[in-house]
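Feature request, filed as a ticket because there's no other form

It would be nice if the structure record came with a short human-readable summary line next to the tokens. Right now we just get the raw output. Example of a typical job, pasted below so the devs can see what we mean:
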Amino acid sequence: MGTRSLTRIIPRQEGLSYSEGHTRAELALVNIYQQYDGYPEYMAVEYAEWLKDIKIINGLGGNKNLNEIANGAGCFAAQFIAKFKDRAGQMYLQAIDNEIGWAEYIYTLYPKADHDTYMSIYKVSTRTVIFVGKPEKALQRYDENYKTNTKQEG
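Raw output as currently delivered:
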């Protein structure tokens, strides 16, 4: 049996704390159910690796690398699905509600144009937010390869 998780993309907004997004599914652009590999040492690392290179902008003018930008939160959500949904099974879109089902973790991503994207991780069994931060902070905490490479460089 795998480690199940939900991932919600909620545009960053005034008055919404990063540590309460798991309770505000109605604000999400998407609600994604992950059948397995939802534990932070895998999922947070996968998300952070992608997030650290994506810049959210407002408008596509100019000569920009379209693989490294998203044109707002809706574009970001669509690119996220395109990145992580590459075959049948494993990842499913679900109704946007506060139903948790069998999920062990809830990941919430907070995109906003011209700002860093933050991520929070809520652990359902302990009813606690176990992480809030930028992609680099997630890599520092959960990625053994990142920790090893950083020590070697320093």
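Something like this underneath would help us a lot:
The CA atoms of residues 14 and 112 lie 11 Å apart.
The longest helix spans residues 72-84.
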